Inverse folding.
Protein backbone atom coordinates (compact mmCIF):
# COMPACT_ATOMS: atom_id res chain seq x y z
CA UNK A 1 0.00 0.00 0.00
CA UNK A 2 2.73 2.47 0.97
CA UNK A 3 4.62 1.95 -2.28
CA UNK A 4 1.51 2.70 -4.37
CA UNK A 5 0.88 5.92 -2.46
CA UNK A 6 4.52 6.94 -2.86
CA UNK A 7 4.35 6.28 -6.60
CA UNK A 8 1.15 8.31 -6.96
CA UNK A 9 2.67 11.20 -5.02
CA UNK A 10 5.81 11.07 -7.16
CA UNK A 11 3.66 10.98 -10.32
CA UNK A 12 1.66 14.00 -9.18
CA UNK A 13 4.79 15.91 -8.23
CA UNK A 14 6.31 15.20 -11.64
CA UNK A 15 3.18 16.53 -13.34
CA UNK A 16 3.41 19.65 -11.20
CA UNK A 17 7.10 20.09 -12.04
CA UNK A 18 6.44 19.67 -15.77
CA UNK A 19 3.61 22.16 -15.66
CA UNK A 20 5.96 24.64 -13.98
CA UNK A 21 8.57 24.07 -16.68
CA UNK A 22 6.01 24.63 -19.40
CA UNK A 23 5.08 27.99 -17.91
CA UNK A 24 8.72 28.98 -17.50
CA UNK A 25 9.59 28.35 -21.13
CA UNK A 26 8.87 31.56 -23.00
CA UNK A 27 7.97 31.23 -26.64
CA UNK A 28 11.09 31.82 -28.70
CA UNK A 29 11.15 33.34 -32.14
CA UNK A 30 11.64 30.87 -34.92
CA UNK A 31 13.05 31.92 -38.29
CA UNK A 32 12.58 30.20 -41.64
CA UNK A 33 14.75 30.84 -44.65
CA UNK A 34 15.83 29.27 -47.88
CA UNK A 35 19.54 29.22 -48.69
CA UNK A 36 21.10 29.80 -52.11
CA UNK A 37 20.89 26.09 -52.94
CA UNK A 38 17.13 25.99 -52.25
CA UNK A 39 17.26 24.18 -48.91
CA UNK A 40 14.73 25.27 -46.27
CA UNK A 41 16.14 25.98 -42.82
CA UNK A 42 14.56 26.71 -39.44
CA UNK A 43 16.38 28.25 -36.48
CA UNK A 44 16.16 30.43 -33.40
CA UNK A 45 18.54 32.94 -35.00
CA UNK A 46 18.47 34.36 -38.51
CA UNK A 47 21.30 33.22 -40.79
CA UNK A 48 24.65 34.97 -40.47
CA UNK A 49 25.28 34.84 -44.18
CA UNK A 50 23.22 37.07 -46.43
CA UNK A 51 20.68 35.29 -48.63
CA UNK A 52 18.91 36.42 -51.75
CA UNK A 53 15.56 35.42 -50.31
CA UNK A 54 13.84 36.96 -47.31
CA UNK A 55 13.99 35.48 -43.82
CA UNK A 56 10.53 34.75 -42.47
CA UNK A 57 9.76 35.16 -38.77
CA UNK A 58 7.37 32.43 -37.62
CA UNK A 59 5.07 33.28 -34.71
CA UNK A 60 4.52 30.55 -32.12
CA UNK A 61 1.18 30.55 -30.40
CA UNK A 62 1.41 30.99 -26.65
CA UNK A 63 -1.96 29.27 -26.15
CA UNK A 64 -0.39 25.83 -26.42
CA UNK A 65 1.64 26.14 -23.24
CA UNK A 66 -1.29 27.70 -21.40
CA UNK A 67 -3.64 24.87 -22.34
CA UNK A 68 -0.97 22.29 -21.49
CA UNK A 69 -0.50 23.98 -18.13
CA UNK A 70 -4.24 23.99 -17.52
CA UNK A 71 -4.49 20.32 -18.48
CA UNK A 72 -1.60 19.47 -16.17
CA UNK A 73 -3.22 21.39 -13.31
CA UNK A 74 -6.55 19.65 -13.92
CA UNK A 75 -4.83 16.26 -13.99
CA UNK A 76 -3.00 17.12 -10.78
CA UNK A 77 -6.25 18.15 -9.08
CA UNK A 78 -7.99 14.96 -10.26
CA UNK A 79 -5.14 12.78 -8.99
CA UNK A 80 -5.06 14.64 -5.67
CA UNK A 81 -8.82 14.22 -5.30
CA UNK A 82 -8.50 10.53 -6.14
CA UNK A 83 -5.75 10.11 -3.55
CA UNK A 84 -7.85 11.86 -0.90
CA UNK A 85 -10.86 9.69 -1.70
CA UNK A 86 -8.75 6.52 -1.52
CA UNK A 87 -7.23 7.65 1.78
CA UNK A 88 -10.71 8.28 3.25
CA UNK A 89 -11.95 4.94 1.93
CA UNK A 90 -9.02 3.05 3.49
CA UNK A 91 -9.52 4.89 6.79
CA UNK A 92 -13.23 4.01 6.79
CA UNK A 93 -12.49 0.36 5.96
CA UNK A 94 -9.90 0.20 8.74
CA UNK A 95 -12.38 1.65 11.24
CA UNK A 96 -15.08 -0.81 10.13
CA UNK A 97 -12.64 -3.71 10.46
CA UNK A 98 -11.67 -2.57 13.95
CA UNK A 99 -15.34 -2.30 14.97
CA UNK A 100 -16.04 -5.76 13.56
CA UNK A 101 -13.08 -7.28 15.44
CA UNK A 102 -14.21 -5.58 18.65
CA UNK A 103 -17.76 -6.85 18.16
CA UNK A 104 -16.50 -10.38 17.53
CA UNK A 105 -14.37 -10.27 20.69
CA UNK A 106 -17.36 -9.08 22.74
CA UNK A 107 -19.56 -11.81 21.24
CA UNK A 108 -16.95 -14.44 22.10
CA UNK A 109 -16.82 -13.27 25.73
CA UNK A 110 -20.62 -13.21 25.93
CA UNK A 111 -20.74 -16.73 24.44
CA UNK A 112 -18.29 -18.09 27.01
CA UNK A 113 -20.27 -16.48 29.84
CA UNK A 114 -23.60 -17.82 28.49
CA UNK A 115 -22.11 -21.35 28.31
CA UNK A 116 -20.89 -21.10 31.92
CA UNK A 117 -24.31 -19.94 33.09
CA UNK A 118 -26.01 -22.78 31.20
CA UNK A 119 -23.59 -25.31 32.71
CA UNK A 120 -24.40 -23.93 36.17
CA UNK A 121 -28.16 -24.34 35.63
CA UNK A 122 -27.69 -27.94 34.46
CA UNK A 123 -26.30 -29.02 37.86
CA UNK A 124 -28.52 -31.34 40.00
CA UNK A 125 -29.29 -28.58 42.51
CA UNK A 126 -29.27 -24.91 41.65
CA UNK A 127 -29.27 -22.06 44.13
CA UNK A 128 -29.50 -18.35 43.32
CA UNK A 129 -27.85 -15.84 45.59
CA UNK A 130 -29.93 -12.81 46.51
CA UNK A 131 -27.81 -10.57 48.72
CA UNK A 132 -26.68 -12.78 51.61
CA UNK A 133 -29.41 -15.40 51.12
CA UNK A 134 -29.61 -18.37 48.74
CA UNK A 135 -32.80 -19.54 47.11
CA UNK A 136 -32.98 -23.10 45.80
CA UNK A 137 -34.73 -23.51 42.46
CA UNK A 138 -37.33 -26.21 41.93
CA UNK A 139 -37.31 -28.24 38.69
CA UNK A 140 -39.80 -25.96 36.90
CA UNK A 141 -37.82 -22.77 37.74
CA UNK A 142 -34.63 -24.53 36.73
CA UNK A 143 -36.05 -25.52 33.30
CA UNK A 144 -37.13 -21.89 32.68
CA UNK A 145 -33.59 -20.68 33.50
CA UNK A 146 -32.05 -23.44 31.30
CA UNK A 147 -34.31 -22.44 28.39
CA UNK A 148 -33.28 -18.77 28.76
CA UNK A 149 -29.60 -19.74 29.04
CA UNK A 150 -29.83 -21.89 25.88
CA UNK A 151 -31.38 -18.94 24.06
CA UNK A 152 -28.44 -16.77 25.18
CA UNK A 153 -25.93 -19.41 24.01
CA UNK A 154 -27.69 -19.56 20.63
CA UNK A 155 -27.71 -15.76 20.42
CA UNK A 156 -24.05 -15.17 21.33
CA UNK A 157 -22.38 -18.32 19.97
CA UNK A 158 -22.99 -18.05 16.23
Amino acid sequence: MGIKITRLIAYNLSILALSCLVTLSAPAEVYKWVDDEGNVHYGEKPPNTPTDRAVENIKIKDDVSTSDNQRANETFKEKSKSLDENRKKRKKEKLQKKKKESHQANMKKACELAKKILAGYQMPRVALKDGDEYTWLDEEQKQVKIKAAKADVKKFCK
